[in-house]
């Protein structure tokens, strides 16, 4: 069980996490999603007692991580797979970790076998590929057989086999009743791995939902492309439709003037008729079944706090141009 | 629980220290200083043989005997630095902090491990320099070697503890600065540059400040004067011993306070 309550973390003038609250329950894989810089890693660092919260609480199993007696037996974490001393052998890296938490030495051998590194246990980590380091980091997280697991971007640098291995491992760990939190900036990966999703942007909670709910929420709609998006939005909203700028960038033929709108609550016929009545040209009207990826893009780029001062981000800049 | 947690942390740090090559390089360098002292002892013995009886009375072996422990101080000081800065460079310090969240306990565990290794290495080199050079020169009667080995040993044993003080200062510097280069430069400054600068202060300040330099403390603890040394000898033995302990403990305490407060 992981609970974050009204968590705020500031670094100087920068607010990395802003009054964030969510809970992660046992028995599910929870995806922790957000663009780069959204505050995922910061939240995990505060959860692990590495950084001190400015205000609010971040609890594991009902208490602060720093107060745990033998933390690795309750919480396993992989933050940065590259953060290993290259001169140390894999066996030794896990060995000191186990020794520091009163974990029997045979667990070292067990987890090395579990992650497929038994053959290189006596090799120095400097010679490991990124994928092997990820496996070593996961082995370290599993060492204490903990009930709570946190992984920060665990599929980075893995080949397709490795990605599938992680996916199956995460699902198996959750099926054993563990609490599993995986951060990622890739919805396509979480779509296949996670049951629940916590989406954050600019340090704030955007969505706390299940994968199915999110798909349904964004799943049935109509994608409309028009050169006069502002007018059409007004018309459709007056008719009771929900209208949001749609992701996907400018029209494929390069006409930047066109705006793409994701319309909910109205069908293709109603939209076409209303646009015709007002004389608004439509360049595309497509009944749309959004992928989670698109739902995620809509969530994060449509977030006002996120777009407001994200001038350096090309995608949000494009959004701003389209909608202005 | 505290005791077991601390014992686990010490065991983990001991494993860490044993499992990187830099530890063995540094300890090899430390052992080499002793080897060098013994080789120089052979050279000194030969030189002694060629001297006239009058010159022999002015020829001293002690400076050579003391140089081993002095050099060992820098070697194990680097060992202290390397007990923590590579963890900051690689980012492994976060893994360490998640394994042992109580940072004061963690630093104490590192200090216990590094301090013990440095104490053994420092004593081996310092006492080894005394005993070894005596064996090398054999029955040549150096003017400053009249005292029995048993009489000289306590003084050298005290001096043999100073490398451990440098190791703990190195550890504290590493924890505070988080950079290997910065920490080693600071260590060399405290070990060698600062005493030389102090020596060149106008009197009586060179003697006053020179009395509180680490290198001058063992002689003061043993109650010897500072003749032929760049240090002062104004402190009584008890005060000198307390100051030597403070050099080991105060920087570590400061580092522990900073570690507890700082985001990792």
Walkthrough of the structure:
The complex is a heterodimer of chains A (324) and B (264). Chain A has 324 residues and is an alpha/beta fold. Chain A has two domains: 2-201, P-loop containing nucleotide triphosphate hydrolases (Rossmann fold, 3-Layer(aba) Sandwich); 215-323, Alpha-Beta Plaits. Chain A contains twelve helices and 13 strands. In chain A, the strands form three sheets. A six-stranded mixed sheet of chain A has the order 5-6-7-3-8-9, with helices on both faces. The longest helix of chain A is centred in the middle third of the chain and has 16 residues, at 160-175. The radius of gyration of chain A is 23 Å and the shape is elongated. The two termini of chain A are 43 Å apart. By secondary structure, chain B is mostly helical. Chain B has one domain (2-261). Chain B is 77% helix and 0% strand. Chain B contains 13 helices and no strands. In chain B, helix 2 (21-49) runs parallel beside helix 7 and helix 7 (103-137) packs antiparallel against helix 13. The model of chain B has no long low-confidence stretch (mean pLDDT 94).
Summarize the entry for a quick read.
Chain A has 324 residues and is an alpha/beta fold.
Top keywords for this entry?
heterodimer; A: 324 residues; alpha/beta; Rossmann fold; Alpha-Beta Plaits; 2 domains; six-stranded mixed sheet; four-stranded antiparallel sheet; 12 helices; 37% helix; 26% strand; elongated; disordered C terminus; B: 264 residues; mainly alpha; 13 helices; 0% strand; transport (chain A); ATP-binding (chain A); AAA+_ATPase (chain A); ATP binding (chain A); ATP hydrolysis activity (chain A)
